[in-house]
Design brief:
The structure is a homodimer. Chain A is an alpha+beta fold. The first copy, chain A, has three domains: about 230 residues, Bira Bifunctional Protein, Domain 2 (BirA Bifunctional Protein, domain 2, 2-Layer Sandwich), CATH 3.30.930; about 110 residues, Anticodon-binding domain (Rossmann fold, 3-Layer(aba) Sandwich), CATH 3.40.50; about 70 residues, C-terminal domain of ProRS (Translation Initiation Factor IF3, 2-Layer Sandwich). Chain A is built from 14 helices and 27 strands. In chain A, strands 3-9-10-16-13-12-11-24-27-23-22 form an eleven-stranded mixed β-sheet, with helices on both faces. In chain A, strands 18-17-19-20-21 form a five-stranded mixed β-sheet, sandwiched between helices. In chain A, strands 4-8-5 form a three-stranded antiparallel β-sheet. In chain A, strand 6 and strand 7 form a beta hairpin. Chains A and B meet through strand 2, helix 2, strand 3, strand 4 and helix 3 of A and strand 2, helix 2, strand 3, strand 4 and helix 3 of B. Strand 5 of chain A pairs antiparallel with strand 5 of chain B. The structure holds zinc ion (2 copies). One zinc ion binds next to loops of chain B. Chains A, B: Catalyzes the attachment of proline to tRNA(Pro) in a two-step reaction: proline is first activated by ATP to form Pro-AMP and then transferred to the acceptor end of tRNA(Pro). Chains A, B: It is found in: Cytoplasm.
Chain lengths: ~500, ~500
């Protein structure tokens, strides 16, 4: 049976769509730019969500839920914020339909006094609540996270990477001091880095955004950036130090322990279903999805083989014993005993779904006390002893997790360059893509010129101090090299 | 320090608001009819969600996610469905704002070709997907659940019980046969009954709705109904057998194993944050929330008492040892060692938050190897031996769970009547409220007349066969008594 996945080298963009379709992660929806997240995709998101949620709780955060709708007037309270989001807002203007000749129409009588915006992000509605919750320094810090859907009316959309509606988490914290807020911003950046690298096996660069790439309303935007298999960069998570901007816009002050009234300091931080797009483009291959074991909905699939009922019973008994042993090691496992499809068809399906390990068990394995073990990432198959198979599989899952990270790290290292001249820069960006470190004079004009001429943007300014030098474009002084790439 | 909770007997409705406020469950939001679910309320919802989600998965369901927006034309594909929801729809008509003199205004140029409805429920958008997913009997059943927010533009709202936006789960299943779909409908009703009774300690009656109370688009609506402390009924969950209505509206057919093309059979079922309202009105008292141990965010709070630093260290050591023992029993526990508030203040706070058990530990307890244990539900305080305290507390949590159920069951039994005359019916409904079983002739006219004259509605027709009789209003034949009450 032919696989329906276009080769990555032939057409990366089509390959990506094919991997999503064959892995049954998501479908296009009849609403332009929205998607349907299918059970396989949602189970992956649930695992990502559970891991992140635990990391948020371990760092002292609680979950809460704020309204989907934001009064239009709230958005405009913070000047940069509204400028950033005004052009991509879903606006609710009416609250009733009525019968019409060919179905239903909006009832013009039901027009709202004030339009409601479907949240593109929740800073405004949340800081309106924080005004009521914060009186004194004793009420601080507030460390809240929300899991929610948000809507940004994007014109060019792509499954997971950029959709009109997406699922995400948004942390919103309030602090008594600037230092504490900056520490929180950096702490959550580190949580994101850890999650990306240790769970997603997706190496990232960290840094701060330039002013032109900053979140609308932030003082500083910290980010994690990764490099995908087509050598384009992806912003995978952001953590914003908001200063006192939202506190001032919503008049949120607290009485300090010295009795003074001061504006509250804020952060916000978020990652979204976009991470799934990053995961796919980091690891997957022409056979479909590859999912790191820590996040895989099924970590192991067992495919039993039999030719008659007697064999069936024996083989399934053998499989169940192995399953029991795997269950004791808390491994997520699936036994695929469907009868109306061929073994080859099952192999393809589980490959396309990215199950990290496959155990194949037939009558000959019972005779020899064996199990065939196949790795999804390398395609390696080995015959292993039945004895100790569960621990062997558990160890192998750890190895796969590490190998995926190493292999992605190696790919990114190989595609990260450091240049000194603009000619070299343009050549690499044009011919190879990838991450390029280069000196920049710190001005928005030069940044814009580079973007216009090469489509490369500054992904981030590294947090570590670098060597001084001269801007590759203008020759003016540069404090350190910054990280460029063409990006999604 | 005075409690700020109005007495239940004095003003039930105000009491309910006060309990929510003092328990820090939720706030009113600036968007009319929406609420902010605060960390205490959301942690309760998370526990409810986790328990239900496990029950759904144990019965073979998977989670997925469908778009927030539904094209207007989809709603009108099922005639009864659109009639049921047209008058309470949030309608998105534009996708852009622009600057205006005093902030922002809707950009009239951004009007959508087809308006989008914020989902009031997802049957239509989901069955549009199912058409693509279902070709053959091999694709069935589809057993999918979605955790999501939905919007219904309600005019009279009340925290948790009826809000414009609410959080819920909606199951949507597709089956090859009518029998299988009916079985699924009943299975999920049973899941809801189990959850309500065993987790929420909230006894419920089960049955089917009359035609006038049926879900818009359903063939049969099964429900769980409970009776609250003000003797009003609450519909706490519904499970709908949808027949082939949505399959026909969205043209979803499958090829049977005999090669015939047939319409698919459907169910849908949901519970929402409304359950939190039911939980509050079932158990809480004039001191605030009472939460059954299985769902309590914190099952035990430890309040240490000390007068000087030396005592502090000793007391906290003693507390931590007990916490370790409780942790080993997987009990959710909080140590309240805040220094800037009085013990009395802490007691009130944890009472208002509904923490089932409080352990108080001071220097004298250390001397005597004791712990003071206070039950939230009964207010009983006992001095217990330090030795074996963890197991004692675990047992007590189970006892509390059972006692809450028994006490609610007793209250509901005492307030459930069976009558034979309409005069008796009216007297009970008017003077006492509660559940009343009575004969009804099965017509919508009589149902309507009873509602107009007494505000009582038929909560459900019991699933068990009852004795035949004569309608209390018309004297016409009745197959069985049905359950009436005034309801939220
Ligand atoms: Zn190179
Ligand atoms: Zn009575």
């Amino acid at each position: 049976m032919a696989k329906k996945i276009t080769s990555k080298d032939e057409d990366f963009s089509q390959w990506y769509q094919d991997v999503i379709r064959e892995g049954k992660l998501a479908d296009h929806s009849p609403v332009r730019g929205c998607m349907v997240i299918r059970p396989n995709g949602y189970a992956l998101w649930e695992n990502m969500k559970d891991s992140l949620d635990q990391m948020f709780k371990d760092t002292g955060h609680e979950n809460a839920y704020f309204p989907l709708f934001i009064p239009k007037s709230f958005l405009s309270k913070e000047a940069q914020h509204v400028e950033g989001f005004a052009k991509e807002c879903a606006v609710v203007t009416h609250n009733r339909l009525q019968s019409s000749e060919d179905g239903v129409e909006v009832d013009p009588e039901s027009k709202l006094d004030e339009e409601l915006i479907v949240r593109p992000t929740s800073e405004t509605i949340i800081w309106d609540s924080y005004r009521d919750w914060i009186q004194s320094y004793r009420d601080l810090p507030i460390l809240i996270n929300q899991w929610a859907n948000v809507v940004r009316w994007e014109m060019r959309t792509r499954m997971f990477l950029r959709t009109m509606e997406f699922l995400w988490q948004e942390g919103h914290t309030a602090h008594a001091t600037k230092e504490e807020a900056v520490d929180e911003t950096k702490q959550m950046l580190e949580v994101y880095r850890t999650f990306a690298e240790e769970y997603m096996a997706m190496p990232v660069k960290t840094g701060v955004k330039t002013e032109s790439e900053r979140f609308a309303g932030a003082v500083d935007t910290y980010c994690i950036e990764t490099l995908l298999q087509d050598n384009k960069a992806l912003q995978a998570g952001t953590s914003h130090f908001l200063g006192q901007n939202f506190a001032k816009a919503f008049d949120v002050k607290f009485q300090s322990s010295e009795g003074q009234h001061e504006y509250v300091w804020a952060t916000s931080w978020g990652v979204s279903t976009r991470l799934i797009g990053g995961l796919i483009m980091t690891h997957s291959d022409d056979q479909g999805l590859i999912i790191p074991p820590k996040l895989a909905p099924n970590q192991i699939v067992i495919v039993p083989i039999w030719k008659n009922d007697e064999q069936k019973e024996e083989v399934l008994d053998y499989c169940h014993e192995i399953m029991d042993e795997l269950n004791e090691l808390d491994i997520r496992i699936k036994l695929d005993h469907r009868e109306n499809m061929s073994v080859g068809w099952k192999f393809n399906e589980h490959e396309a779904a990215g199950v990290p390990l496959r155990l194949t068990i037939g009558p000959r394995d019972l005779e020899n006390n064996n199990v065939e073990v196949a790795r999804r990432d390398t395609g390696n198959k080995n015959i292993e002893d039945r004895e100790g198979i569960a621990q062997h599989a558990a160890d192998l899952l750890e190895t796969i997790q590490e190998d995926l990270y190493k292999s992605a790290q190696q790919r990114i290292d190989e595609n990260t360059h450091s240049v000194d001249s603009y000619n070299e820069f343009k050549e690499i960006i044009e011919e190879e893509g990838g991450f390029v470190y280069a000196h920049w004079d710190g001005t928005a004009e030069t940044e814009e010129k580079i973007k216009d001429e090469t489509k490369a943007t500054i992904r981030c300014i590294p947090l570590e101090d670098g060597e001084q030098g001269e801007c590759m474009v203008t020759g003016k002084p540069s404090k350190q090299k910054v990280l460029f790439a063409q990006a999604y």
